[in-house]
Design a protein that fits this description.
The chain has five helices and five strands; from the N terminus they run ααααβββββα. The protein has about 190 residues and is an alpha+beta fold. A hairpin with a 6-residue loop joins strand 3 (about 145-150) and strand 4. Helix 1 crosses helix 2 (about 50-65). The protein is flat.
Amino acid sequence: MGKIFKRGLIALAPVAISLAIVIWLFRTLEDIFRVPLKWLVGEHYFPGLGLIVAIVFIFFVGVIINNFLIQRMTDFLDRLFAKIPFFKTIYNSIGDVMNYFKPKGKEEKGKVVTVDIDGMRFLAILTRSDFSDLPEGIGKEEEVTVFVPLSYQIGGFTAVVPRSKVTPIDMTVDQGMRFVVTAGMLSGNQK
């Protein structure tokens, strides 16, 4: 009986957790836009209108940001927000994560690699190979930065390692993360 329950749990957990996250995101967007929309449209408001307006709003913000003048203004706001105490820590961290997902050229950043440390190989994601914009001492020319995720949890560690200890792997970041999260139990044919 316990085995059957365990199999059911293993089958349902990814779906249930994914649905919970999507529902939470939709509810959050709905809650953000509900109050101003109720004030604006009054009795014509219906549940889900906030989500629709949020999606349309996000799309139009993307369209507007593509305008050169608006890009200059957002760059100014970025610099301004980056100077506000406490807020700048959160703002800069979120901005750095979002920049990681911007389209890249032929950079090596974002590749799945293995890192060889004393005969052990760790699956990692290459995050930086150029340290010229950072203070001296963080990394050298022959070094790279990798993020080594940990199994079964959200977390990991960042390491500066010699480039010679890094070997590229033919895997997408998504496949690499799934491999790590499952502690290496992911089969090679999953996409």
